[in-house]
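ugh ok fine here u go
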Amino acid sequence: MKYKMNVTLSNSEVVEIEIEKPELIYGATAFIVNYKVDGYALNPITNEKLEIIQGEETRFFIPAHIEKDYIYAKEHHLPIKQVVAPYFYGKGEEAPRNDKETQRRYSVVGIIKHHKEDQYLCEDAKGRNCKSFVMGGIEENETPEEACIREVFEETGYQDVEIDFVSNFVVVNHFYAGYKGVNRYAYLNFVYGHLTSDKHENITEEERAKHVVKWISKDDLKDFINIDLNKMALDILLYGQHAYIEDGIMITNDDNNEKTSQEVRKNIIKMLNLEGIK
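structure:
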């Protein structure tokens, strides 16, 4: 369903638009109008002043969550503001437990290519059905790139890692970490890179007890990877980055942070008294 919404411009003009997911306005970086007008538009949720740009329609420009806006933003090096994160919830033994504390965590998934072969660095966990790329936490004051390089060295022994890019989007993984005895609410960055040499050192006994390091060909990754959030990282590897258009968990600077996008949608519809259009 779409909803009618009034947007106020700096010249006091009120423009009526239609929008399907009003919660995405948190991620607006501009406002498009189909006629010439100067000034700015006021974001009705955040009160931010949005640049007005002329286009073929009148609506919010939301590159993180509208595919055609994402393509335009990438081509013109415009900011991309993510406000909905893909949400992965643990299943079975990894479902979050009410009797355990929940720890916030910031982590990385490292998608690292061999320096010569079309193969990727993976781990096959011992004692758990977990086949994945390299994963690990971001330590204090580390960037995702630095965390990826460190985790690759600690968990696999490979040293010469060059980072190609970090995904425009973070994902949320909410699960029970039985090996730690706590629930984890983790924000993860996908970090893509490659080795520049075969140089590596032996990993510690502690790391060897956790997993087996494997090189998996690109063609076989779909059959090997069995962790959902890693499958999303693989999708980016195979098909490139794109806007995230599904529902998920909100990333905002107010009371709507970490609520579901569906819940926030209802809140905004009620707050702005939006009229539905069937």
